Amino acid sequence: MKTSIAQTTHFMEIALKEAIKAKGRDEVPVGSIIIDKKNNIITTNGNRINELSDPTAHAEILCIREASRKLNNKRLFDCKIFTTLEPCTMCASAISLARIRTLYFGAFDFKGGAIENGVQFYNSSACNHKPEFYGGFNEKESSILLKSYFEKKRV
Question: Where are the alpha helices (H) located in the chain, listed in sequence order?
Fold first, then answer.
């Protein structure tokens, strides 16, 4: 089932709510959501790196782990992931390994992103599965949230 622009915006708004919750936990405000092929929400989460003392506890990784548990499958065929920030190399790789069909992200990450910036993991020979991907959904809101978080950290 295709995801319309209105549905994509709706799911990105849910991811943004998770990012806001992450900010409230003093985490870098990134939120993610995974849906199934019928556009049902499987899981949502935000960064929990500090909370869990785990450098891999990115929103995308936590969602992939939970969705895999719920579906009892390491492969998330026909699933879509929405995340508020362009995934890093670790998350891009995990999305590929999980065989997620489509990735939507908000803000572009010119420093740590690995989709359209940085290593562009999906163009690498190390990538076995390249999902469809689309960036810039709710980009302004995602960027403002991230900038406000880091501005307070630099004071």
Answer: 5-24, 49-52, 59-71, 89-97, 139-153
Q: Where are the alpha helices (DSSP H) in 28-88?
A: 49-52, 59-71
The pairing of beta strand 41-46 with beta strand 31-35: antiparallel
What distance, in Å, lies between the first and last C-alpha atoms of the chain? 46
**Helix (H) or strand (E) run with residue 32 in it:** strand 31-35
116 noted as active-site residue:
no
Exactly one of 18, 60, 86, 151 is catalytic; name it.
60
What tens digit of pLDDT does each residue of 37-74 get?
999 999 999 999 999 999 999 999 999 999 999 999 99
**AA identity, residue 21:** K
Rounded Cα–Cα distance for residues 38 and 23 (Å): 30
76-130: pLDDT as tens digits = 999 999 999 999 999 999 999 999 999 999 999 999 999 999 999 999 999 999 9
Token code pair at residue 34? 């995974």
Residues 66 and 42: beta-carbon distance below 8 Å: yes
Q: Which two tokens stand for residue 101?
A: 């069909």
- Quick one: CA dihedral 17, 18, 21, 23, positive or negative? negative
